[in-house]
Automatic annotation (TrEMBL):
Catalytic reaction(s) noted: D-alanyl-D-alanine + H2O = 2 D-alanine
Active site: 157
Example of a GO MF term: D-Ala-D-Ala dipeptidase activity
Gene from which this protein is expressed: ddpX
Cofactor(s) recorded in Swiss-Prot or TrEMBL: Zn(2+)
Keywords, in A-Z order: Cell wall biogenesis/degradation, Dipeptidase, Hydrolase, Metal-binding, Metalloprotease, Protease, Zinc
EC number: 3.4.13.22
Stated name of the protein: D-alanyl-D-alanine dipeptidase
Superkingdom of source: Bacteria
Annotated Pfam families: Peptidase_M15
Cofactor binding annotation: Binds 1 zinc ion per subunit.
Stored PANTHER family: D-ALANYL-D-ALANINE DIPEPTIDASE
Function: Catalyzes hydrolysis of the D-alanyl-D-alanine dipeptide.
Family indicated by similarity: Belongs to the peptidase M15D family.
Lineage: Bacteria, Pseudomonadati, Pseudomonadota, Alphaproteobacteria, Rhodospirillales
């Protein structure tokens, strides 16, 4: 049911931070760095990859499918529903139809978005006018690529995109990933 997102099938950079201690919890959330999406989301990601290439960039993916078990770990580390979906209600990551990512330039360097990934502050929200012109432009480019590829943005996180009508997809556990993440 889930599609593995990895080169060479997908021309992206992977930096799956929840498989490392370099995330808001301070400990690995996943036991292995596996990137998965629902096939509908994988198809839209292919469109986004093509559009990013057209502006001389690549996509760097930080997170995609997040099993329900992982959502609980994140919730226990940072239980602010503005940034981490309450696992009792479900996350669109847990449906396999949300992705966290950024743009990187031709040299593989991430574009300056004004904050890092998972900076759970108001500076991470879309539409900020207190960022530099370059940071605003970079966020606008990512937004343009993703929206043109059929994704919706989440207003509180510049890095988070999801499929429209994400709620119609079921919530999944690690069993949907063959037990590969947890």
């Amino acid at each position: 049911m889930l599609t593995e997102i990895a080169p060479p099938a997908f021309d992206i950079d992977l930096e799956l931070l929840y498989a490392t201690a370099d995330n808001l919890s301070g400990a690995p959330i996943y036991r292995s760095a596996v990137c998965l999406l629902h096939p509908d989301a994988a198809s839209r990601l292919t469109d986004a990859i093509r559009l990013a290439r057209g502006i001389g960039c690549r996509l760097r993916v930080y997170d995609a499918f997040r099993p329900a078990e992982a959502q609980w770990r994140l919730w226990h580390a940072f239980s602010d529903p503005t940034y981490i979906a309450d696992p009792r209600l479900g996350s669109n990551h847990t449906r396999g139809v949300a992705i966290d990512l950024t743009l990187v330039n031709g040299m593989g360097e991430p574009l300056d978005m004004g904050t890092g990934f998972d900076a759970m502050t108001e500076r991470s929200h879309h539409g900020r006018s207190d960022l530099t012109a370059e940071q605003q432009r970079n966020r606008a480019m990512l937004l343009g690529v993703m929206v043109a590829a059929g994704w919706e943005h989440y207003s509180s996180e510049w890095w988070h995109y999801q499929l429209p009508d994400a709620g119609r997809y079921p919530l999944l556990t690690d069993a949907a990933a063959g037990g590969r993440l947890m």
